[in-house]
Amino acid sequence: MNYKELIKGIKKQVERPLRYCYFTIPDYIRYGESFQKQYNFLEESQWWTKEKQKEFQLEQLKNLINHAYSTVPYYKKLFDLHEINPRNFKSFDDIKKIPYLTKEIIKENFNDLISSEYRNKKLVEMSTGGSTGEPLILLADKNADKVKEWAYVSHLWSRVGYNVNGLNRRAILMGAKPVGNYYEYKNRNLIMSSYQLNEKNIPNYINHLVKFNPSFIHCYPSSILLIANYALANKMEINISKLKAILCVSENISDEQRVIISKAFKKPVYSFYGHSEHAAIAGECEKSNYYHLEPFYGYTEIITSDEQYASKEGEKGEIVSTSFLNFAMPLIRYKTKDIALLSNKVCCCGRNHQLISKIEGRAQEYFITKDNDKVMLTGSYKLLSSIQDKIYMGQFYQDTPGKVSLKVIPKIKLNDEELCNIIESFSSIYRNQLDLIIEEVEYIPRTKRGKFKFLIQKIEI
Ligand SMILES: [Zn+2]
Predict the structure, then answer these.
(1) What are the residues whose beta carbon lies below 5 Å from ligand 1 (ion)?
(2) 150 C-alpha vs ligand 1 centroid, how far in Å?
(3) Domain that holds residue 398
(4) pTM of the full predicted structure?
């Protein structure tokens, strides 16, 4: 054995126990000073008055606009073209002069969007999923982004018992690919594969969860929903004594899905709105059903279909965000294509954040009708739950307006009457604007990131 191999062997022997010890250190100490600073700031500033919040947010916005103009070629050109002088930027209204930033613009101007201050620094790629078309790649300052993001996430989770000063054993059911099997123990957490989750091995997943006894299950809603549906349909009790909450990420969650998960695990389901571009984050409140927009993560505008600001209670609009996290590749007025419902109420918890009553969906969560209208996929969740005893899984697919196919893995072969009933219920939900075809399949593949999607939407929206 040569010297290099010997070192490699020793490293392998000591790495695992060292990592295990390292992960017994609470987040607050392990992530160091910049995490502590950010976390403490969030804990304190969440109780600020509306005026104090707005004042600080405007300072952040001015700072970003100036930085973008002086160091980012794309914004220098854009501001000059539209005669925008960052020095005259005085109020939030001034942002309206800046044209929107879209995924297409980012792709076309990729290099010109990188700040000259960061050209020689080590940047990391952040890629967004995107079920239709090519995924979008962005660059960010590795350390700043990771630490700040984690401070925000753990701050939001603290609303359901996550303790940065303690140990938070998590069972993680997302896009990980455990080596050689569908689960592994890593960094004191139980990592389970969402790719391999299927109706045959769900009982094994439940056994591992119960045995591990985590404080939190950190998961894609679509994955935990498969387990919850299975447990309820088979009248299985899931008793995880230390479990505090189910932490859902990455996907929108409907009220129906929340009820199912909560019923199966007998614990609250906590979710926040966020996206891989890190331009906006809004966490659920522990005392109400509202989402609170975090004002110092980014500046968020909710734009209606006629290009106005949503202002009335429950008014719907697209989330357009300006990120305060990424100075390496600034995103100003970035169109997320996600839809939110605004609320003007004041939350009973005492925080003075802008509220969102509902995140209605992502662009890829709509069907397109015969009249080329967008209708929500969520309308059909009830239909899927109503046939839960007949099928293991179902997934919608659309590539033509007005036509939808539903791929199902049946438990027993569906007879003609059952098929007709499903088709009729679907038509009546969507007022005859969508025709359904049912296709029986043996397997439904997951996305590249291991998500189970309820709809594969091939029409560009
Ligand atoms: Zn609240």
Answers:
(1) 285, 288, 347, 349
(2) 21
(3) 365-457
(4) 0.83
